[in-house]
């Protein structure tokens, strides 16, 4: 009855379940069966690079944009990823970074109000969701972007929080999948808003990335599907930047010594030289990893690690359990399970690091996201003091429903009090 146990485990632990198995067993390849489908969990860095040959389908899209994506759509989405990479690695990408920094600085000046000077109580994750989405969406879509509409903002988080429900429709009838109705509703609100944005002239103020996506998708898809595929892109755009920013704030503010050290070393006029921030962003994506890489075995094949070999059956699923790889002491040392902000300042085992994905599933917007998160958190740290309303920092549990994100947000967010720092209230960064 092991297959029932696995189904129950997935239901309870969601995406954490695969990492749970990888961490518990610490074997190169672990085979389980879920609802009749063989699933191969890669639980060790010793073999996780092997599943990249032509025997494996590079990426699986779990019917998120529209129940059933055909091959032309897959091709357009993958070409969109490549296009995004090219743009963000060019001068246009540098310009987007600078624009995001200017918008972030402007927003924090607006937040320095009388209300924050006496103390503002907020749900920290909810506040970060709103503020980071505001900044990322304006950087990507311009000042008339649809995500400034509270209804669209709320709908996106309904959609993002239900991505695992869309994937369960591969195995279960839709009526048996909890959260699917809300997810479909949220997705359709986002699609409708993006469709309006794309066809009412606002695109001209959008970033080079969004304009390139529009031309690419329009060439190969029906008009309505252009917005649908752009909605799929937003899962990566917002789904990773928000939780990483939240966890970085949590780790800094909950550690008094770290907060003091970071404030002492910051020169925001030269943020690119404050390399500890960029290291800390990567460390959050390592330490807080909940995502996974997914492949489909396209034909029976055998992979090996040392003297051990493993038979992978056609149509089986390969799951690269990121957290299992990121907590391997043989790779990361005795501090593998600890948050070490300066870890990435030195040499790190790149092949075992899957923060922001890796290989075919690597995040094409990693550099932009890292720069924006570092800027946002640096300004927050320099402008505001923050502590829990009840005075005690408690580490929140991570939410296993967030399938689209490499790093999941908290199940329950702490309530915090933000107070503008008096000695910096008039400083313009």
From TrEMBL:
UniProt cross-references to PANTHER family, sorted A to Z: P450, PUTATIVE (EUROFUNG)-RELATED
Matching Pfam families: p450
Name this protein carries in UniProt: Cytochrome P450
InterPro entries hit by this protein: CYP450_monoxygenase_sec-met, Cyt_P450, Cyt_P450_sf
Any one Gene Ontology molecular-function term assigned to this protein's record: heme binding
Stretches of the chain forming a coiled coil according to its record: none
Gene3D superfamilies, per the entry: Cytochrome P450
């Amino acid at each position: 009855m092991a297959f029932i146990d696995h189904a129950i485990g997935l239901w309870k632990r969601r995406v954490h379940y695969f990492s749970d198995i990888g961490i518990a067993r610490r074997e190169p390849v672990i085979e389980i069966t879920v609802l009749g489908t063989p699933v191969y969990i890669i639980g060790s860095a010793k073999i996780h690079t092997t599943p990249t040959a032509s025997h494996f389908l590079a990426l699986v899209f779990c019917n998120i944009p529209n129940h059933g994506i055909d091959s032309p759509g897959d091709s357009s989405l993958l070409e969109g990823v490549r296009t995004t990479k090219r743009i963000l690695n060019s001068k246009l990408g540098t310009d987007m970074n600078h624009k995001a920094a200017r918008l972030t600085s402007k927003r924090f000046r607006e937040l320095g109000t009388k209300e924050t000077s006496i103390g503002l109580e907020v749900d920290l994750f909810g506040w970060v969701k709103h503020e980071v989405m505001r900044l990322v969406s304006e950087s990507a879509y311009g000042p008339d972007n649809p995500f400034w509409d509270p209804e669209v903002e709320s709908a996106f988080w309904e959609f993002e929080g239900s991505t695992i429900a869309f994937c369960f429709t591969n195995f279960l009838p839709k009526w048996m999948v909890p959260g699917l109705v809300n997810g479909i509703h949220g997705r359709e609100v986002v699609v409708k808003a993006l469709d309006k944005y794309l066809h009412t002239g606002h695109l001209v103020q959008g970033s080079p990335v969004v304009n390139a996506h529009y031309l690419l998708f329009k060439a190969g898809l029906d008009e309505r599907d252009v917005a649908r595929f752009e909605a799929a892109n937003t899962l990566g755009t917002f789904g990773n930047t928000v939780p990483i920013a939240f966890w970085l704030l949590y780790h800094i503010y909950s550690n008094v010594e770290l907060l003091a050290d970071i404030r002492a070393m910051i020169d925001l006029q030269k943020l690119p030289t404050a390399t500890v921030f960029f290291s800390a962003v990567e460390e959050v994506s390592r330490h807080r990893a909940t995502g996974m890489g997914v492949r489909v075995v396209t034909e029976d094949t055998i992979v090996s690690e040392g003297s051990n070999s493993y038979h992978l059956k056609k149509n089986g699923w390969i799951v690269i359990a990121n957290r299992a790889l990121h907590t391997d002491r043989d790779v990361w040392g005795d501090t593998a399970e600890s948050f070490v902000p300066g870890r990435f300042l030195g040499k790190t085992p790149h092949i075992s690091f899957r923060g922001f994905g890796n290989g075919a599933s690597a995040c094409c917007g990693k550099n932009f996201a890292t720069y924006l998160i570092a800027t946002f958190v640096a300004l927050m740290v320099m402008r505001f003091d923050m502590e829990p309303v009840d005075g005690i920092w408690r580490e929140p549990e991570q939410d296993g429903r967030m399938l689209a994100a490499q790093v999941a947000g908290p199940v329950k967010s702490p309530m915090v009090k933000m107070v503008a720092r008096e000695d910096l209230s008039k400083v313009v960064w």
